[in-house]
Design brief:
Number of strands: 15
Largest sheet: 7 strands, mixed
Low-confidence stretches: none
Oligomer: single chain
Bound molecules: 6-O-phosphono-beta-D-fructofuranose
Shape: elongated
Strand content: 15-25%
Distance between the termini: 54 Å
């Protein structure tokens, strides 16, 4: 193991730079390895020459540890086995990516990504003899087999801070402030931030809700002379009729978004409660990483280098009961980690009186 590569793949999040930094120092200081940072995920391996930089101590002499995003760049577009080319045709680019890896003379590659990226890299590794180890990152916290992924804590902090800021304006205007948060098909960000930020209502995709149920909660508050409220809605919550709310961009890409407006309109059309909506969006991804994310990323980075050194490939680093462990990538991606009914945070939310949908204590 003399020369290793790192790439970040999928949506960015807080803590990626901390992970890259930790990988570099562990590899250099403990094993004297050369570390190559590949730019823009697998897209960098498609360039000729491969788009990459050799990392040195100087790379990390500034504020990288504290900055959101990934200084290597990333991509969350396209499937290399069926990728759109410039002339809008689809073609299999996997061979070229594999060639890129071998041209660099890498002995191993650390990928920092979510379940989608891990699946792609695992397929590339099988096809082209790539020695890979994965580090889970995603604000959604939906990767299985790990208690937490890099970026989740930062996203929860941003959403909590947003609720704190919305609280005062909600009180001032006696309004219902609705905060739409990210999370893909899981409600982890909404549930955690909602509890931390004092939400009165939390809607997550895993639990069925009704508009009348929300209104009952707001009326019950009104009867206690509380005329303001905070509602957190996860982006994947569906309309009452089961329809997903999707935003389609000009280039045809579709993303979840807009459920906050739906909930506000429904409440306003059935009551005299005034609602306002804040869709937090990518602020949750680009914020400076929290201390917890920097620490988790640093610990994951060290462990990932050790796995490569021991030639334990096709593994993902994971957090379990405050210990860093490793699991097979297949095991990590085989189950999508949703909020389960027996999640202690569900009981916590219900116990402090939050309306969480059609379930009871
Ligand atoms: O998976 C991370 C995530 O931020 C999701 O929460 C969100 O649905 C999606 O990515 C947004 O993707 P994009 O950055 O392409 O808009």
């Amino acid at each position: 193991m003399k020369k290793i590569g790192i790439l970040t793949s999928g949506g960015d999040c807080g803590g990626l730079n901390a992970a890259i930094r930790s990988i570099f120092f562990r590899a250099k200081n403990k094993y004297n390895m050369t570390v190559i940072g590949i730019r823009n995920g697998t897209s960098g391996l498609l360039e000729r020459p491969v788009d990459c930089i050799e990392l040195t101590q100087k790379t990390f002499s500034g504020y990288l540890l504290k900055q959101g995003g990934t200084f290597l760049g990333t991509t969350n577009k396209g499937y290399p086995f069926d990728l759109s080319t410039k002339d809008n045709k689809k073609s299999d680019q996997s061979k070229k990516i594999i060639e890129g890896y071998h041209q660099l003379g890498l002995d191993g590659l650390i990928i920092i990504g979510g379940d989608g990226s891990m699946q792609i890299l695992q397929n590339l590794a099988k096809k082209g003899n790539l020695n890979i180890v994965a580090i889970p990152k995603t604000i959604d916290n939906d990767v299985g087999a790990t208690n937490s992924s890099i970026g989740f804590d930062t996203a929860v902090n941003v959403a909590t801070q947003a609720l704190d800021n919305l609280h005062s304006t909600a009180v001032s205007h006696s309004r219902s402030m609705i905060l739409e948060v990210m999370g893909r098909d899981a409600g982890h960000i909404a549930l955690s931030a909602g509890i931390a930020g004092g939400a009165d209502v939390i809607l997550i995709p895993e639990i069925k809700y009704s508009i009348n149920g929300i209104i009952d909660k707001l009326n019950e508050m009104k009867n206690r002379n509380v005329k303001h409220s905070l509602i957190v809605v996860a982006e994947a919550v569906k309309k009452e009729n089961g329809e997903k709310v999707i935003h389609e961009y000009k280039d045809g890409q579709k993303r979840l978004g807009g459920i906050g407006e739906y909930v506000a309109n429904e409440i306003m059309s059935k009551t005299d409660i005034e609602c306002r909506v804040t869709a937090l969006g990518h602020v949750q991804r680009g914020a400076p990483p929290t201390a917890n994310d920097r620490i988790l990323a640093s610990a994951f980075g060290v462990y990932a280098v050790d796995l490569l050194y021991k030639k334990k490939f096709d593994r993902m680093v994971a957090l379990k009961d405050r210990k860093i462990i490793d699991v097979s990538i297949t095991e990590a991606i085989k189950t999508y980690k949703n909020v389960e009914r027996n999640d202690p945070l569900v009981e916590t939310a219900l116990s402090i009186g939050i309306y969480l949908g059609d379930i009871k204590l």
